[in-house]
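A further point concerns the way the authors explain their paired sequence and structure data. Each protein is reduced to its one-letter sequence and a matching series of backbone shape codes. An entry of this sort, consisting of the sequence and the corresponding backbone structure tokens, reads as follows:
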Amino acid sequence: MTSAGEGEDEREIRDLSHRYAVALDRGDADAWAALFADDIAFASGDTVRGRDDVLTIPGDQLARYERTLHAVTTQVIARDGDRATGTVYCIAHHLYRDTHQHGRFPFDLTHAFLIRYEDEYARIGDRWLFTRREVITEARYVHQVIPGPPVSA
């Protein structure tokens, strides 16, 4: 049986992935920075980025795409004291505009990624933070979409 404190820790760890998605989609650099330990290792493919590099990700995403939408789905956590590991699934939509015939016919697309994150977390002070996040793209695809109105922060 899980104690109240253990349940609260697990809720806080799960919440990290949801706050990660919202901060990234909104380009909220302050909320994004608050999720990571100072010694964060952010791995994608053969690249491992440190904190300074990680903090540029929201701005890079929104400069490249009109907007993004990260939907966190399945999440499994294994906790050991003030450390934990987790696997998180996410479907990440990256909306952008393209054109036919030299720009005369614009249309909107989503470049969607099926992502699995392999995470490590630590309680630092009174908060759980990411200490390592590995981004694994399981698949990706492109679809034409009809976007809704812009989302306000």
User: Anything to note?
Assistant: Residues 31 and 131 are 16 Å apart (CA to CA).
